[in-house]
Amino acid sequence: MLRFLHFLLLLPALFLQVQAITWRGADFSSLANLESSGRTYRDTSGGAVTPFEKILHNHGANLARIRIWTSTSSSQYSLNYGLALAKRAAAAGMSLLVDLHYSDTWADPGHQSIPSAWPTDLSGLNTEIWTYTRDVVNAFASQGTPIQFIQIGNEINDGLLWPTGRISTQGFSPASQLLHSAATGVRAATGGSSVKIMVHIANGWDSSGVNFFYNGIFLAGQFATSDFDLFGFSFYPFYNSAAKYSALQSTLTGIANKFNKDIMVVETDWPATGSCSGVTLSETSVPISVAGQTTWFNGIKNVLSAVPNGHGIGVVYWEPGWIGNAGLGSSCSDNLLVDGSGVSRSSMSMFSS
Questions:
Q1: Does the record bear Hydrolase in its keywords (predicted)?
Q2: Each residue of 130-155: pLDDT tens digit?
């Protein structure tokens, strides 16, 4: 009992002592669309208007996560839109994490629609996803902004390219084949052998869900552990009160020990102001405040730093500058790292190493 009490006394100190993480990133995919609507950003009140990617990098962000939809419209995150944003991120000094949704719109645990121009049969989709993925990697390489990391799907807990690749209705085999085709498409591209392939699922704190996915997705002759390089997880505090640091630590430790691969948390947010209607945040000791945003993010850094064998390598804040959508899909009022005028909050410092 005395040892347990001693551990409890030490726990706050452990999370105050922030550990360095190699990759500190932001997904600012909405930026160019926001700028088109007249939004601007400043690092200080009264300061000069500054490109948001430069503000992020100046505060220590070294990884830009850019989502790509299969749409051909810039307002819908087309490939050309992503390529242009990648040039800006690279010029600011950031490496690239490209997030392929394999859909004309949002892909997440509840939505994974086949692109309207794609076939719907499994054979046709295997060919399409291979070709599309190869071509995306080639496009980034051709313009001089090679991809560092690529997600072959976004939050694919129940598979991808529904209904054909939906795990809950079709079993694991179609999804396993599609992931194998996507991965080999990356490797077939120019410089593809050096691109790190990520598999991304939601709810990184949920060991049961994570283990269900990874106990089933690897099938002989289909998707194999050798087909990808690292794991990506989403970890939000406002969708389930069980999303605690301790649960995330347990899940990530188990995954690292089992597969000996690197891990990132590639989506997270925390509220800066206001309230979270009807929601109990998962870490109740962290306040809804600008300081709380930094505390939450640093807590994730510390979880990752404790993953065995140095396999916890990065964390990404999701859409820190999306003015006009400050709740970022949650019931919280404002999860941004800027205020409504586009001025940086002090929580922007979370990206420092």
A1: yes
A2: 999 999 999 999 999 999 999 999 99
Using 50, 70 and 90 to split pLDDT, how confident is the model at 353? Answer: confident
* CA-closest candidate to residue 98, choices 63, 71, 54, 57: 63
155 annotated active-site: yes
**In the chain, what are the domains?**
23-348 (3.20.20.80)
Pairing between β-strand 332-334 and β-strand 273-276 as defined by DSSP bridges = antiparallel
Token pair for 46: 């009264």
Q: Is the pLDDT of residue 76 over 60?
A: yes
Q: Which residue among 128, 155, 283, 319 is the active-site one?
A: 155
Q: Is-contact 107 157, C-beta < 8 A?
A: no
* 183-206 per-residue burial string, b: 16 or more CB within 10 A, e: under 16: bbbbebbeebeebbbbbbbbbbbb
Residue 244 neighbours by CB under 8 Å, 6+ apart: 205, 282, 283
Candidates 128, 267, 283, 319; catalytic one: 267
Q: How far apart are CA 156 and CA 152, in angstroms?
A: 9
Secondary structure (DSSP) of 60-118: T--EEEEEE-S-S-GGGT-HHHHHHHHHHHHHTT-EEEEEE--SSS--BTTB-BPPTTS
* Contact partners, residue 279, CB within 8 Å, separation at least 6: 238, 330, 331, 332
Q: Mean pLDDT, the chain, as a whole number?
A: 95
- pLDDT value at 129 more than 90: yes
Q: What is the pLDDT of residues 303-320, one digit of tens each?
A: 999 999 999 999 999 999
Contacts of 106 (CB under 8 A, 6+ apart): none
For residue 232, give every residue at least 6 positions away whose Cβ sits within 8 Å of its Cβ, in sequence order, or none. Answer: 151, 198, 199, 200, 201, 263, 264, 265, 266
Does the active-site annotation cover 267?
yes
